[in-house]
Amino acid sequence: MFRRLFHPSACSQGFCMRNLASCVSRCNERGWFHLRKARCFRNYSHGSCYKGQKTFGSDEGTLQPWKNNSKRKWSKAAGFTVVGIGAFASCILAYCEAADNEEKNEEEKCTCHEEDNPLGKIESPNFDVIPKNNITNGIEKPVKNLTLEEAIHESVDLLYQTMEIAGIPGLSVGVTVDGCNVWSTGLGYADIENKLPCTKHTVMRIASISKPLTMMAVARLWEEGKIDLDAPVQKYVPKFPKKMYEAKEVTITTRQLLSHQGGIRHYKKKNGKKNSDVKNTLPKKQDESSEKEETKEVPDEKSSTSEEEKEVANPEHIELKNIKTSASNNEQNHSTVKRETTKKHEREGKKKRGKENEFDSKEYFIKEEFKDIESALKLFQDDDLFFKPGTGYLYTTHGWTLISAVVEGAAEKPFTEVMCKLFHDLGLNNTYLDQHRPIIFNRARYYIRNKHNRLINAPYVDNSYKWAGGGFLSTVGDLTKFGNAVLYSYQRKEDSKDLLLGILKASTVKEMWKPTEGTKMDWDQDGSYGLGWGVVEEKCKHGFCRACRHYVSHTGGAIGASSVLLILPSNDDLTENEVPPKGVVVAILCNMQNAGLNKVGLKIAKLFERVPS
Length: 613
Hints:
The protein is an alpha+beta fold.
């Protein structure tokens, strides 16, 4: 019983010994622990070797240091943990049994140390296992390569952690390395009610990843000379009103809109109020239905006059009524103050937690279909600018609606036709406009959480008012293909004659991925915003501190959906014999809103970067 009780593997029965097994084994060839005998163990709090005896008393146990130069209380770090009353009694019985059987060996010497070194013999490390080039200029590099199976296993763990934290019902993930699809799968459910699992073919809302796709359409028109990025937007959209800021006329350019520096609002107006007056700019169907809600009952004049006559006839009734009125007024004032205080605390709490939840805006829940871009512009075109164009930064989806109008004017075609032609040229066979009527196979259901944090179906919304900024559907396979097309264009040398042309010139992609001064990357504080992409540059300010890898990405958030598309280019310059793309592309889509996916996407990209090609 004694030896079983204190075996290192039975830590739940008495003392926690897992961290001490290697040291105790030097005292006992079987690796068991004897309480009454002299013993040696490692104190991880102080890094010194002790011998002593565990005692049960008011002192709660003390450790006698090896050279008796001090006295310290035992702790979990030293390897002792008593679990429960039953375990405590078992320890006492075992202690007595050990005392009877081993009285002659109380002062047995510990053999796990040497006189000159209380820490014992330290084995010299094998430096042959550490690569010589794992550190460059104070920047640590991954020491060990991973197999494909190991990278997939760790990625699955990361994704399940993200699903548990954000409460995601289902997601799809796709990873390519050097242009080859190495892993794509689905986790969880695309449709909970019908128990349909997510797969790599599941179609979901990509939300703001629509912006990089729209950016490619702009870039192609730019290369063709049909768009001047620095010209006023009125050149392509004559009906868009000229804007004023601080009583002065200002100019908004397409380049400023592409980097969110045009001053156009997002889902909140400049006065700080959410847009409760959306129905004034919607199609007429909602205006007609809203008129019924605004009608009010007119009080009866006869009943009011009869009450006045009663008050004149009975003065006591007037006095009693005044008392009741004053009491009710006090209650109303108290409740009003209480509501205002509560709202104040809520606003302060939101400020402490960060920016307000943009999904509270009613514009997110628009259900009416907008037939053209011109009608969508009416949502915001007459609103005040937040700042003088080019002097600030405000992430805005409405600004990209104005960009879609610029594309229409430059291409002389409807924006939806331009984008469908682009999807065809890219080979994105499973990328669509987010429309309700068409039958789209493998389309997922979308979910949100209610005020009780229970999972419910997301409400129906129509995203036709923001095609360019967040109105497309796609799969992870199509998104990684799109990412590789951009990466190929970025890495292909323009003087190369043996390689096929990229869909864009390398100089164009470099301009897109160039950080714009005064901008920021909302989903990574180390980055900035370029033209339609978030960009993080390679940098490391201090040796052995935080080092940033160069990568580009864009995240997305829509009603019932979140997304990320991340491109991690290879650090090494391509040789003449190497064919682009070289790097990792990761796409993740899920059917739950407000799920931050950029961080997990970057971790997965770095894991697959360690897989030898």
